[in-house]
Amino acid sequence: MVNAQPPKNMLTVRDNRTGKVVDIPIQDNSIPATAFKVLKAPRAEGEREENETEKGLRIADKGFLNTAVIRSEITFIDGDAGVLRYRGFPIEQLATKSSHLETAYLLIYGSLPTASQYKVWQDEVLHHGVMHSDAEQFFKSFRYDAHPMAMLTSAFAYLGSYYSEANPSLQGQKLFTKGDPESLAVMDKQIYRLIGKATTLAAMAYRVRQGRNFVTPPTGLSYTGSFLYQMDHLGEENYKPHPVLEKALDVLFLLHADHELNASATTVLQTGSSLVDPYSAIAAGCASLYGPLHGGANEAVIRMLISIGKPENVPGFLEAVKRKDKVLSGFGHRVYKTSDPRSFIVRQIADEVFRVTGKDELLETAMALHHEAMKDDYFVKRKLAPNVDFWSGLIYRAMGFPLDFFPVLFAVPRVVGWLAHWRQMMLQEGGVKIWRPRQIYVGPGKRDYVAVDERVAEEGPRLTPSPVVHSG
Ligand code: CMC
């Protein structure tokens, strides 16, 4: 007897071009995009040959709006409920009870460390903070006004040049994918180095612009305390970072440590999928984070607040946003559609920091902007709420970090998340598949080369190179 009811865990798809029906298995509420490749059709009249209908149906997803590219055990976000969990632990619990370095262990290895595991981990990470003295020349080679993210991005790639033993191009492409103890040891050593040196590289990018001598990472301080020392130390005998500011920065680091497959983590995996060394992959992630839609938003928020100037100018600014002339930086998120749980914690930290540093003069404008936007139909309808970047910049400003250093304060802790995803992918079942998306080709069909004196000029903006004005 034929079972008329198809199984429940199947998606039944009918291709009306051919009448072909396929059952596609649903696993974990997802379907494999490759299952659609069996839906082939003869080219219809007028259909472009480049659509390649005979080769199977393609899935179009500009901007990865609904495409899952990996199975992951690291971070879970429920964007409608405003939930964020690292390895199952709610972010609110970790922010109050854990530290950035303990959470880093959790994100990378999957469980909270015991006291002895944590000691080994902390020792390894802090032990790997020291940079070769050659690096001083590297930082000094930048222009006096170089953006610190340009320096940090380059510095991660530069760092890789020290470790030929960690380069699959030199040691064999299975260096990080074997999963045996020897391979894991090489991998974990690079993890200690990258997390340990991220603060050192960031502090060097800061100090070179201030004209300060570089300092060796101290002993006896926490990860975040060591970072503040490396930034701030000017020869004091018993330098100790302010405990409230150290704690605040540590929680901010923890909140920024991972956020599943955002643009930069995806970039790290995309780059890492070619089996390049982890330093190059992290440099690529850092470059992606720099953009104002991602980690550069904390800097963009402050520039926006400065341009608004005072609370009275907020309504005019919001009108410009609604006309799409401007963007309200620090608002909106691809995944969160009610609230970003990190933003509430950041808001509380802001108050703690302001009690020490005094209030930032832009706070009133920020609060007016927040207040007006949250009740405005434009933002309500589009479910736009403050994200982690809306308040964090005000804290960094109050703590005295330069404005263009803010994305660095996002990148340093995010190295942890990038490495967690990279390690997971290297060790995933079935090995690493190179990430090679498809495209929908809409360019010219086949045409023949035209000799130069027979060509008709194409004119117009975008169709020809733009003229530039030369100075000097
Ligand atoms: N200001 C004004 N309008 C906005 C904003 C904003 N910040 N964000 C989204 N919109 C509008 C957008 O124009 C669109 O309107 P319409 O439907 O009329 O075309 C609608 O809301 C939907 O937005 P979208 O562009 O489809 O959303 P997306 O998921 O592609 O982009 C985003 C997400 C974060 C890039 C975007 O919200 C944005 O540009 N925000 C400002 C930059 C920012 O704060 N980034 C930090 C993100 S959180 C930290 C991190 O992960 O890096």
Automatic annotation (TrEMBL):
Key words of the record: Transferase, Tricarboxylic acid cycle
Pathway, per record: Carbohydrate metabolism
Keyword ATP-binding assigned: no
GO biological process: monocarboxylic acid metabolic process; tricarboxylic acid cycle
Annotated catalytic residues: 333, 389
Gene Ontology terms for molecular function: acyltransferase activity, acyl groups converted into alkyl on transfer
PANTHER family to which the protein is assigned, alphabetical: CITRATE SYNTHASE
Family: Belongs to the citrate synthase family.
Protein name (database record): Citrate synthase
Organism from which the protein derives: Schizophyllum amplum
